[in-house]
Amino acid sequence: EDQVTQSPEALRLQEGESSSLNCSYTVSGLRGLFWYRQDPGKGPEFLFTLYSAGEEKEKERLKATLTKKESFLHITAPKPEDSATYLCAVRGSGGSYIPTFGRGTSLIVHP
Amino acid sequence: NAGVTQTPKFQVLKTGQSMTLQCAQDMNHNSMYWYRQDPGMGLRLIYYSASEGTTDKGEVPNGYNVSRLNKREFSLRLESAAPSQTSVYFCASSSGQGSYNSPLHFGNGTRLTVT
User: Fold this and answer.
1) Chain B CB within 8 Å of residue A49 CB
2) Identity of the residue in B33, B41, B103 whose CB atom sits nearest the CB atom of A49
3) Which of A58, A94, B43, B51 is deepest in the core (most CB within 10 A)?
4) Residue B98: exposed, middle, or buried by beta-carbon count in 10 A (0-12, 13-18, 19+)?
5) Residue B85: phi, psi to the nearest 5?
6) Is the pLDDT of residue A97 over 90?
7) How far is CA B34 from CA A94, B58, B86, B101, in A?
8) What's the gap in Å between the CA of B88 and the closest CA on chain A?
9) CA-based angle A101:A81:A41, to the nearest 5?
10) Where does B17-62 have alpha helices with state H?
11) Is the CB of A97 less than 8 angstroms away from the CB of B106?
């Protein structure tokens, strides 16, 4: 069974204070690891897909990295508008194409 | 493009009432999904449809039924609502079963309260 654990559950940062969110996963044959952003009252919005260890993707102040056991979402010099819940999901090759989601990290960036 | 559209946005039901949540996507996606999201529980899959004409149970299907009306539309029905079904419901779509690298695209949810 695929499993995804995100940490921390909640993170408070000051504007400009860089940090990282963690997504640890257990999957039989990783087909893809996905990061989403969810704003209050909205549905999750797709950010990145990572496929293999060593891969990195960037978008503005966000950079996602992948190892064989975990992924990090690095936030550089965050701004208050980066405040959201960040979700991680994995798809494995174990038979089901349904992604498994973590419970998310709630990020608040104070001005 | 509207992406994934869900209606209604908000709904209040009394215990025992029934209702149907509607979902439509305009991305020509093959697969569609219904999730519920509760505090501390994350996203839990209720039902999904790999392609038009097929539906399958997810993690928490009890108390729900679905209909894949056509390629665009996937509805979720609560036959007899219970307070435990108070939640935020999200519909999502993706390119298809054969596309493991295709992300899910979500609607903005239906906030349901059952009293």
Assistant:
1) yes
2) B103
3) B43
4) exposed
5) -95, 5
6) no
7) 21, 9, 15, 19
8) 9
9) 50
10) none
11) no
B contact set with A (CB within 8 A): 4, 31, 33, 40-43, 45, 48, 50, 58, 90, 92, 97-98, 100-101, 103-109
Residue A90 half-sphere exposure, CB side, CA atoms within 13 Å?
25
Among A48, A51, A35, A50, smallest CA distance to A84 is for: A35
Residues in B touching A45 (Cβ below 8 Å) = 106
Residue in this structure with the two tokens 């209604």, named with its chain if needed = B8
Could you tell me which of A66, A81, A68 has the C-alpha nearest to residue A35?
Answer: A66
CB contact under 8 A, A49 and B58: no
For B94, counting Cβ atoms within 10 Å of its Cβ (0-12 exposed, 13-18 middle, 19+ buried), the class is buried
Closest in A31, A41, A103 to B101, CB measured: A31
Residue A3 CB coordination number (10 Å): 11
pLDDT tens-digit readout, A15-73: 999 999 999 999 888 889 999 999 999 999 999 999 999 999 999 999 999 999 999 99
| pLDDT tens across the length of chain B (115 residues) | 689 999 999 999 999 999 999 999 999 999 999 999 998 888 999 999 988 899 999 999 999 999 998 999 999 999 999 999 999 999 999 986 556 678 899 999 999 999 9
